[in-house]
TrEMBL record:
Disordered, as annotated region: 1-22
Superkingdom of origin organism: Bacteria
Similarity comment text for this entry: Belongs to the gamma-glutamyltransferase family.
Pfam families: G_glu_transpept
Keyword Membrane: yes
UniProt protein name: Gamma-glutamyltranspeptidase
Residues spanning the membrane: 32-50
Claim: Disulfide bond is one of the keywords in the record: no
Keywords associated with the record: Membrane, Transmembrane, Transmembrane helix
Lineage: Bacteria, Pseudomonadati, Pseudomonadota, Alphaproteobacteria, Acetobacterales
Biased composition range(s): Basic residues: 1-11
Length: 477
């Protein structure tokens, strides 16, 4: 059975591979299971061209009702999430698929070597905050310290508790994108241009993101990542736990060490997601939920929403206080305490939001702790190594969900480094008062705004290159 540690309504999942292993073993012949146990199946040879995995059942949304909406910074990932909704998956399924697709389409900010946080809200229930933070490698002598990969365990935990389809089926779209290739988006191209000299200095990164000369890929170029496809196929077959406790963990650690990352097996095992109740507040008949610490951008956004005070100042004071508990954060929110400090330059991130026809909402923020993490690749896995959290400040992960009684009002998440939490707080205030969401400063908002659960529209920052994908089953947008 899967092991869980439960204390004061907080949940950490330590081995998210048990259920996965049962699901996989029920479908695979013994000979294939034996080959998985004896071989690493990494690299291009592990992907069979032409195979298309489709496991999500074709179902129909309620007559005249909305299938749901996905809004993300990268269009191809948004379309993957929306396709999951169209096939009958719920918001947690679609959010998981979107995040996994972003690992392929936007590895500059959402590689599988990083982490993040998601806020999950269902009608009539207390919203939950799921944080999957990376850990710093503890091996000495690393010249480019890396973070442990936290995203897979966090996404697995969310989908295990709230999803409706097999986790493997949600890996398949990302696997297909890595194998057959993506079109480089404007978002990824801009990130590549920003770090071109440093990225091309690494042979592994240059082989993936270079153009064969002294330049990086540009918008419209094709990008296939067969080694990353092999990595995803390995997880699809052997389970998420293999990356943290199995042979794939050994492969990843060895590759990270060769890349100067300083990871070891214990670092991988100790990378655990945390689930708690969200921070909550009620004003004017609107219930607002925010990501909870350790995703402390949620506290900053909540104080900005309730008082108008600086979110960045609130988080600076929170981090200086040494407090870490949910109770302390909720008390700070209830008191309206803020702060006048500031934060150092924070790492880049990306955000997305999802709703479904049943009123579930998910808002997520992902980060590599630096643009393109360490700028190096974890060997044959094709994964961009996240940067060590011991060397970079914690990213400001911020998201919110607003409900009016039991009807969904808004789902909001943001990137924008130091200004992300302020942007979420301002957007939440605008949504509560039904005024236009401001798009000012460095904060970049992705939002879904609703008038009743069946009347929602996506909104992405007009200054960026994201996509709001929303469809109803009678073809109205």
């Amino acid at each position: 059975m899967e092991k869980r540690q439960v204390a004061h309504r907080q949940h950490q999942i330590s081995t998210p591979d048990a259920t996965q292993a049962r699901r996989v073993s029920s479908r695979l012949p013994g000979s294939l299971l034996a080959s998985v146990a004896s071989g690493l199946l990494l690299g291009a040879c592990s992907w069979i061209p032409g195979v298309h995995f489709v496991g999500i059942s074709e179902t129909t949304a309620p007559a005249g009702g909305s299938i749901g909406t996905v809004v993300a910074d990268e269009p191809q990932a948004a379309l993957v999430g929306h396709d999951v909704l169209a096939r009958g998956g719920n918001a947690a399924d679609a959010a998981t698929a979107t995040a996994l697709a972003l690992g392929v389409t936007l590895p500059s900010r959402a590689s599988f070597g990083g982490g993040g946080a998601c806020l999950v809200s269902r009608p009539g229930e207390v919203a939950q905050s799921i944080t999957f933070q990376t850990r710093a490698g503890t091996s000495k002598g690393a010249d480019r310290p890396a973070a442990t990969p936290a995203s897979f365990r966090g996404l697995y935990l969310m989908q295990l508790h709230y999803g409706t389809v097999d986790f493997n089926d949600l890996i398949a779209p990302a696997l297909n994108l890595a194998s057959t290739g993506i079109t480089v988006s404007r978002t990824l191209a801009a990130d590549l241009a920003a770090v071109r000299p440093a990225l091309l200095a690494d042979d592994g990164a240059r082989a993936i993101f270079g153009r064969g000369d002294a330049s990086t890929l540009v918008a419209g170029d094709s990008l296939a990542q067969p080694r990353l496809a092999g990595f995803l196929e390995r997880i699809r077959v052997a389970g998420v736990g293999d990356l943290y406790n199995g042979a794939l963990a050994d492969v990843y650690v060895t590759a990270a060490q060769k890349a100067g990352g300083g990871l070891n097996d214990d670092d991988m095992r100790q990378t655990l997601p945390l689930q708690t109740e969200a921070l909550t507040t009620r004003q004017g008949g609107v219930d607002a939920s925010f990501l909870a610490p350790p995703a402390d951008g949620g506290l900053g956004a909540a104080v900005r929403y309730t008082t108008g005070a600086s979110a960045q100042g609130t988080v600076a004071a929170w981090r200086a206080s040494g407090n870490t508990s949910l109770a302390a954060a909720q008390a700070a929110l209830n008191s309206g305490r803020s702060g006048g400090g500031s934060l150092p330059p924070l790492p880049a991130s990306t955000s997305f939001v999802v709703t479904d026809h049943a009123g579930m909402a998910v808002a997520c923020v992902l980060s590599d702790n630096n643009l393109f993490g360490t700028g190096r690749i974890a060997g044959s896995t094709g994964v961009v190594l996240g940067a060590s959290p011991a060397r970079t400040p914690q990213p400001l992960l911020s998201a919110a969900v607003l409900r009016d009684q039991r009807n969904l009002r808004a789902v909001i998440a943001a990137s924008g480094q130091n200004e992300a939490a302020d942007a979420v707080g301002d957007a939440a205030r605008a949504a509560a008062h039904e005024t236009p969401i401001p798009h000012e400063g460095a904060g970049r908002i992705n939002a879904i705004l609703c008038h009743g659960n069946d009347s929602c529209r996506g909104s992405t920052d007009p200054r960026a290159a994201g996509l709001a994908a929303g469809t109803t089953n009678d073809n109205r947008n």
